[in-house]
Specification:
With about 220 residues, this protein is of the alpha/beta class. It has one domain (about 5-15, about 25-215): 3-Layer(aba) Sandwich (Rossmann fold). The protein is built from eight helices and seven strands. The longest helix is centred in the N-terminal third of the chain and has 16 residues, at about 40-55. The protein is globular and about 40 Å long. The two termini are about 25 Å apart.
Length: about 220
């Protein structure tokens, strides 16, 4: 099935430019320096050669993947090669529009969507990915709401994989004037279980964490 048909079938209101998020939408603010970094060739090489292989760790994403918070989409470029269909949910209208235009006609569809209220039917996806984006959600409570929404749209046994950066002085400098709510690796597994996941696993390496969990 073409990805546009897949998106329509799963009750998505369209690509970027669909109805705006609710008043309670999660707003992720990214400063210009940070956005430039996440759009750079250096970041693209890191994502493909190091970050995604570490996060994936041999996991099979299945046929239908959801990426939450792709930003400029360098992670999307790698993820969409590992699934027949990918839907990318991005809150920022400018980033969503640019990514939708760039990936038009591919196996990826981009929707403007709030992570706390995903426009997909329950059980739509075989896997989901959250790659260095949870810290842009402005409170732990809102992060937990987003995690519960991801659990809702996964099929039984569906996989969630993700990564995030730890709280370091350098990372705080990059996030000046930005939303930065770091995730505590010591509590993340329990938060994933409360959000509805099973088999939650969290691992720290250097200044990053990775996590994986399955929908029951």
């Amino acid at each position: 099935m073409p990805v546009a048909g897949y998106v329509a079938r799963h009750d998505v209101g369209g690509v970027a430019g669909s109805s705006p998020p609710s008043a309670a939408a999660i707003v992720a603010i990214v400063n210009e320096e940070h956005l430039a970094l996440c759009s750079s060739p250096e970041w693209a090489r890191f994502v493909e050669a190091e970050l995604l292989p570490w996060v994936m760790d041999g996991h099979d994403l299945g046929d239908a993947v959801l990426e939450v918070g792709p930003g400029p989409g360098l992670t999307t470029d790698v993820l969409r090669r590992q699934a027949a269909r990918l839907a990318a949910a991005e809150l920022d209208p400018g980033l969503a529009g640019q990514l939708a235009a760039r990936l038009a006609g591919s196996n990826a569809a981009v929707v403007r969507a709030d992570a706390a209220c995903l426009p997909f039917a329950a059980g739509s996806f075989s896997a989901a990915a959250c790659l260095t984006m949870l810290h842009h959600i402005p409170s732990a409570r809102q992060q937990d709401t987003a995690l519960a929404e991801i659990a809702r749209v996964l099929r039984p046994g569906g996989l969630l994989v993700g990564s995030d950066g730890l709280d370091t002085p350098q990372r705080r400098r990059v996030h000046q004037g930005d939303v930065f709510v770091p995730v505590d690796p010591g509590t993340l597994a329990q938060r994933l279980r409360i959000a509805g996941f099973a088999d939650a696993r969290v691992e720290v390496a250097g200044d990053r964490l990775r996590f994986a969990a399955t929908a029951p």
